[in-house]
């Protein structure tokens, strides 16, 4: 897990691993921490907001906006990024000095194409990327949500919920589980790292003046 996750949310997750019990029948999205023998460690209940996919279910902004693929263009310096995915992949290319790949990402017509271009970065080093990727996504998320008041309002309105990318396919940025899987509200049972969820929470702290 990335070093940057050793913040409040990482502490929450570390405490939860192996010590989290579901509230009631486990069908809801709340948990409480419990120690040996089920003795409570804290009375604060934690609520989750599960998201996955970038297509809104209606008009306006909903939790689909949390996706890296949500169409939310923003400009930083001389570059415009069509989505947060474009930001991440462009900065991946920039990290390794691949100008051609960076240009390919920036001109990609959609996030899927930007992702493909980002996977072709020359000089890629896994250890370097693992060290830098979380910071890059946090910064991109701050720019994305700052650029649109409606998006910023939605993110801040999530309050202190734990944001969870409930992708059954992604073990790095998501939890490797679907939202309707009972384990999705039990951090100790997550198959993935949920880095996107943690990055969004870090961005939320920054936008809310806590970062």
UniProtKB/TrEMBL annotation:
Pfam (any one): NADAR
InterPro entries: NADAR (IPR012816), YbiA-like_sf (IPR037238)
Reactions catalysed: 5-amino-6-(5-phospho-D-ribosylamino)uracil + H2O = 5,6-diaminouracil + D-ribose 5-phosphate; 2,5-diamino-6-hydroxy-4-(5-phosphoribosylamino)-pyrimidine + H2O = 2,5,6-triamino-4-hydroxypyrimidine + D-ribose 5-phosphate
Domain NADAR as annotated: residue spans: 51-207
Classification via Gene3D superfamilies: YbiA-like
Xref: NCBIfam families: ribofla_fusion (TIGR02464)
Stated name of the protein: NADAR family protein
Lineage, uppermost ranks: Bacteria, Bacillati, Actinomycetota, Actinomycetes, Kitasatosporales
């Amino acid at each position: 897990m990335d070093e940057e996750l050793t913040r409040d949310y990482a502490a929450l997750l570390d405490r939860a691993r192996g010590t989290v019990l579901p509230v009631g029948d486990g069908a809801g999205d709340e948990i409480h921490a419990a120690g040996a023998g089920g003795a409570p460690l804290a009375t604060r209940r934690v609520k989750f907001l599960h998201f996955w996919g970038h297509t809104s279910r209606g008009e306006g902004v909903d939790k689909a906006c949390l996706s890296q693929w949500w169409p939310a263009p923003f400009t930083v310096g001389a570059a415009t990024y069509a989505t947060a995915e474009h930001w991440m992949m462009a900065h991946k290319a920039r990290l390794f000095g691949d100008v051609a790949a960076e240009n390919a990402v920036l001109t990609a017509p959609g996030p899927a194409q930007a992702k493909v271009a980002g996977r072709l970065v020359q000089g890629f080093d896994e250890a370097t990327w693992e060290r830098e990727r979380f910071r890059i996504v946090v910064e991109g998320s701050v720019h994305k949500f700052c650029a649109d008041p409606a998006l910023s309002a939605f993110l801040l309105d999530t309050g202190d919920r734990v944001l969870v990318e409930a992708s059954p396919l992604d073990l790095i940025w998501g939890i490797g589980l679907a939202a309707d899987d009972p384990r999705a509200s039990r951090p100790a049972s997550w198959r993935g790292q949920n880095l996107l969820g943690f990055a969004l929470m870090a961005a939320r702290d920054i936008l809310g003046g806590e970062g």
